[in-house]
Amino acid sequence: MASIRNCLQREIFTPKEERLLGTIQVWKAGKRRKTSILCATVSSECPVQVSLVKVKISDRGQYKPCIYWTLRNMQLVDGRDAVKETCEFHLHLDKVYKWVTNTCKEKYSFLICLWKLNQRYLQNKIKFVNINPEILEDFVPETQDPEIGETGESDRQEEYERYQELLTKETTDLEKLMEQCEQAVADSEAFVQMLMTDLQVLDQANLKEIINSEKQVHLIVQLIEEALKESEHLEKQLCAHEELLHTVKEHMDNIHQLQIIDRNHQKLYEEVIYLVENLTLAEEHAWILNNGNLDEPKDLELCIKAVQALSCCTSTNLTAGHRKLQAVAEQLIKFESLRQNFENRFVNHINKIIVLQGMDQDFILESDIDSLILMSHSARHRKLMSCKPLMEWLKNNNPVIFNDLLMVYSESLGKLYERQLKEFFSLARFKVTGAKDSRRFSFPDTTERSLPPSSNITWPKLNFSVPDRLEMDIGRRQLVDKVLEQVLSQLEHMCIEEQEFIIYFFNVESTEDESEEAQRKDIENAKIAKKAKVGVLPFVSRLQEFLILTENVFRNAEEPRDLNDAYCKLITATFNTIENLSSQSLKTPSQVVMIENFYFIFSFLSELKIPGLDHKRKEAKKKYTHYLNLYVTSNLGLPLEKLSEFFEGVKTRMAQGIKEEEVGFQMAYNKQELRRVIERYPGKEVRKSLETLYKNNFKHLSDPYLLQVVWRMMQDDFIRQYQQFVELIERCYPGSGITMEFTVEDLLKYFSELDCSDVS
Fold first, then answer.
1. Is 569 exposed, middle or buried (0-12, 13-18, 19+ CB in 10 A)?
2. Measured torsion, CA atoms of residues 606, 608, 612, 617, in degrees rounded to the nearest 10
3. Of 204, 398, 548, 637, which alpha carbon lies 20 to 30 A from 224's?
4. Where are the domains of the chain?
5. What pLDDT, in 10s, does the model give residues 458-468?
6. Percent residues over pLDDT 70 in the chain
7. Domain 2-162 is in which class?
């Protein structure tokens, strides 16, 4: 082993300026024995690099290093068994290497070498397990023979590294000394005697120098004593400074605490100012809320300002901590008391005005025998209009009482309008027939659509009888037409005037807007039965009915912009709800739910031809087409699933750069595999698969027209897919004679037969 080690050092490691410290012959455990040599080396440069090298032995006996590992990357040395002797050991490097050596002594000798390198250069980074500790601590080789172990070499290395190189001056002096004594080198005793003589001379000179320097020693001692005294003085000053600094630290801590207290005071001051400014109601406001006369315009104006100030106070943003403060709680109670007192006073005031207006007997016809004019209600409206800000306040603070007032207004003013209109229609009948009590002649019921909002007036039925109308002469007809035109004109003016007042005074939305916060709520809260088949959703059908009804009612409206905005909001909500609910059904695919509902919306929007909804109609068509194509594509591959997968793989190989004529040489896409896949799809099986597909379509789709559309699209795409398969066979398998077992004519026949079949 010594000769091998010397050869390795000379041929491999010396050229690399590395020293070989340990070697061992090994081979992999559990495999055919193929011996290699593991070498532990260190570099000569600083810092020292410790390496583990695997050297292979060629058949010609040459050594060649094949793998280098840095010993710093070694994680674990596993001796396999700490009790039982075994020649196997494991080293955890980039992976676990399992090696076997000739003898246990060689194994332990090499592991001890690694252990010493770990201690010396790696600060015990490597962990040693399953090794008897006594071996690592007390192992001493029986001989220093290099063939037995390498520990002696490592000891010599330690001694070698303790050697210190001579300095340049030391080398020069030694050379001069050798030149002076060159003649005495042959006589070693004379040379030694000369050196001893020179040494004595030097000792005497040194002794004299020491004696001469005694005074200087005393001076140095004196200086040292003075330095000690100065040091003691300096130490006392440092202690005093330290005490001062400790006091300063206490003061700084106190200052920090004072700063915190000051910040807290500032925050508290800001909070108090905030609460005082926002929760203080002027005394004049409180007095006017409790005592102000609502019949007086001046007091009413002051009440409006006081209510606004009270609303600002009550709407102040307060935290839970604020509300726990007693002063804040008392103010909030005071505000609530003021609000309730004024609310009761105001409601009684408005209620009284409304009731008195409903009982007013002064609303008679402003007309003579030749004219029909309904008395305007503008004066009554103006009297109430001054209270509009207070009505808004009441609506925001107590919607229930506000709605009750609205009902009182509807009932009281409905009676007033009823009396007024009865008188109006009586005069109209008198102008036509000459008798107020005539019953065989009345006007057509054309005013129903112009009813005043929120009224419950009992309208008289005014209908012509055809025979009477034919008996009239031309003059009579002209009179009737004139009177009828006057009646309708007056009714229209009255209804518009009352509607505008109610919308403004009570701050209510128009009828179409209300029908639209209801339709949208109905749409957003819609649900479907999970276990039932889903077709056109109920709220989609109701949307169609709503649009038809609204268009009929507002057909002659001059500015339908607001109506179109409401339509767009409803349809947008419908689109979102359809897509959200489509995946909740367990029996109908989500794509089918969206196909049928978006097609239904597209159809009735096309029929209604509402100009403002043209973009929504196009959007519905786009969504319907998208989900229709998605449904057809996702179900198209089912009849020829394996064949589709095969040719998808062919197209993938071609996309990766394989030439068409070389695809057939691929193991998974050769001619035999193609024939095997084609044999799985004879015409009979294809028709059976298409029949299953048609039944699924029939089961999912509830609209016969959509069923036909889907089936035709599947037919076209299926035939297109078939032709693509045939083209790929001709391009990638030329001259193979491989063909599909069914033709395009067969496919057309299958589709036609299934289309006419009864699958119910």
1. middle
2. -20
3. 204
4. 2-162, 210-277, 283-358, 378-508, 513-603, 637-756
5. 444 444 444 44
6. 81
7. mainly beta
